[in-house]
CENP-V/GFA domain-containing protein
Amino acid sequence: MSSEHPEKITGGCLCGAIRYEILFDEGSAWPPMIGTCQCSMCRKWTGCLFSTDLVVEKTQISPDWDTFESFAQYESSPGTKRAFCSKCGSSLAWFNHDMPKDVIIFVGTIDEQFLMGKVLEGTVKETEHGKHFERGTGYAKKLTDASTAGNLYWQNAIPGVTDHLAGPKFLQHFIDKAPLPETTP
Ligand SMILES: [Zn+2]
Ligand SMILES: [Zn+2]
């Protein structure tokens, strides 16, 4: 496979108790569906002003998260469960009953080598600001481009702070609503 299409991507929680692989075989969408959400629940849940979410099929994930002792879920609203590590508290993903085959993973849980690229051997330099190094291919640009699924809860976008995101914009959820008309800035 070309460097533009990894066979798999790895990630996990902060303490390492939960680790996962997302497999991208011939039949898997690349890039996968990406969305962002600015609802107040995603803000509280991630501690960030918006979540960036990767939508993949449960069958692409291994191992089964239920096999981890610290895997826990919180039902934040009827039909929506938010998965986390009960040891370190990392938010990992959410599940929605309208999308029973899918898992919606927070992009920030993906390992650095896949987001930004591996540090290239022999490129580490000490500078007055700290260590500087060069990296190989990372996929963060593809894995954060919400032009596939869109930006949810645009009604909560904060002018000048979180209203710069590309892709279709929905006042609330995209499942049964049309996107907002494009406006020229
Ligand atoms: Zn953990
Ligand atoms: Zn949300």
User: Anything to note?
Assistant: The radius of gyration is 17 Å. The chain is about 10% helix and 30% strand.
